[in-house]
Amino acid sequence: MPGIVIVGVQWGDEGKGKATDLLGERTDWVVKFNGGNNAGHTVVIGDEKYALHLLPSGILSPGVNPVIGNGVVIDLEVLFAELDALSARGIDVSKLRVSANAHIITQYHRTLDKVTERFLGKRQIGTTGRGIGPAYADKINRVGIRVQDLFDESILRQKVEGALEQKNHLLVKVFNRRGITCDEIVEDLLSYAERLRPMVCDTGLLLNKALDAGEVVVFEGGQATMLDIDHGTYPFVTSSSATAGGAATGSGVGPGRLDRIVGIVKAYTTRVGSGPFPTELFDEQGDWLRAAGFEFGTTTGRPRRVGWYDAPITRYATRINGITDLVLTKLDILTGLEKIPVCVAYDVNGERFDEVPVNQSDFHHATPILEHYAGWSEDISSARTFEDLPQTAQDYVLALEEMSGTRISVIGVGPGRDQVIVRHDLI
Ligand code: IMP
């Protein structure tokens, strides 16, 4: 079973590292297929802590070939800053391969991201401000700059000129900003070209050959199902395909080659930025959950919004992605609660919805219908089998499994790499 996709079930920050760690030594390739440096994951190896935003986590494992696929948007300054920081700490980054078709985030994308958000006022998305949305907009508008354009200066110049034509009108006349010159962008991009060149190739071909040879390829999704451009809480979403379908389009590997779809879900829910969040807590319980779970953004440091587990969302994600296995993370954070509330359905103006409502206004007005499960007070961080868990914790997990429509194969009981209970192997 060599093609394994890892996706977030909720609004991101579910702890995908748990799954990549578990696949660890058996992984030959790790592919990032969507998003850019809006992601953020902290990987702890021994005493060392690494914060990655753009690079796939596989870059830290000596035996793994890391790949940035065509579905990614790349900020070259961030790419090389991350590579340099890792090299300085003795990590070999020479195996990284980058798709010739991946799109580039430039200065005008970053600027537009920030000014657009400011102009949206109350309606703002709460983006990470990294230029992600504007770079994907250019891709869809067919005025994007791709990695391969960096190796032909005259093509690059034509494309940047074309892209800037409308943007400068917008920046100067609508947003009251200074115009951006083609020269400054081209000069900046070309300054990275020679360093980038040896990494660039047809990554789709590379990955298909790896699969042909029976190697294990892990497709690491950025963000999560509810932030997906098609299936998330639009418009409060990111601009890429964060669901399993994106693993195929964002890497050049056919959907039939994706053998297992692993969904990562936290034992409660968090979200960054604006948008609906039915189980959100605004009281002291929320403050407690945020502090207990260390729920502050890796990329932005923003305190995350927190709430209880939302079963219809997991069921929705299971359907949309075709999830075969769930990894339930951070179960230990709930230790000490007398009763654990779980959202089993929604109430929308007096009507019960058992599934995520398709209508945006309904989801905005949804309040959770909660069921309460008995909690536990024992420390579960050293549990390594399901039976090591207190009966009430087992019951909580089994109830979530029953409601989610797929099996919970792995349970995280602490931040360490080994703090997991494996009920079914992921590979
Ligand atoms: P953008 O991806 O910067 O355009 O932001 C769009 C929305 O996605 C905002 O609500 C962000 O907070 C959210 N977002 C983007 N990346 C992540 C992530 O890695 N974890 C959680 N939320 C994210």
TrEMBL record:
One of its GO terms (molecular function) is adenylosuccinate synthase activity. Pathway: Purine metabolism; AMP biosynthesis via de novo pathway; AMP from IMP: step 1/2. Mg(2+) binds at residues 13, 40. Binds 1 Mg(2+) ion per subunit. It catalyses: IMP + L-aspartate + GTP = N(6)-(1,2-dicarboxyethyl)-AMP + GDP + phosphate + 2 H(+). One of its GO terms (biological process) is IMP metabolic process. Keywords: Cytoplasm, GTP-binding, Ligase, Magnesium, Metal-binding, Nucleotide-binding, Purine biosynthesis. Its main location: cytoplasm. GTP binds at residues 12-18, 40-42, 304, 330-332, 412-414. GO terms for cellular component: cytoplasm. Its cofactor is Mg(2+). CDD domains: AdSS. Substrate binds at residues 298-304. IMP binds at residues 13-16, 38-41, 128, 142, 223, 238, 302. The active site is at residues 13, 41, 139. It is found in: Cytoplasm. InterPro entries: Adenylosuccin_syn_GTP-bd, Adenylosuccin_syn_Lys_AS, Adenylosuccinate_synth_dom1, Adenylosuccinate_synth_dom2, Adenylosuccinate_synth_dom3, Adenylosuccinate_synthetase, P-loop_NTPase. Its EC number is 6.3.4.4. Homodimer. Belongs to the adenylosuccinate synthetase family. Plays an important role in the de novo pathway of purine nucleotide biosynthesis. Catalyzes the first committed step in the biosynthesis of AMP from IMP. PANTHER family: ADENYLOSUCCINATE SYNTHETASE (PTHR11846). This is Adenylosuccinate synthetase. It comes from Microbacterium barkeri. The gene is purA.
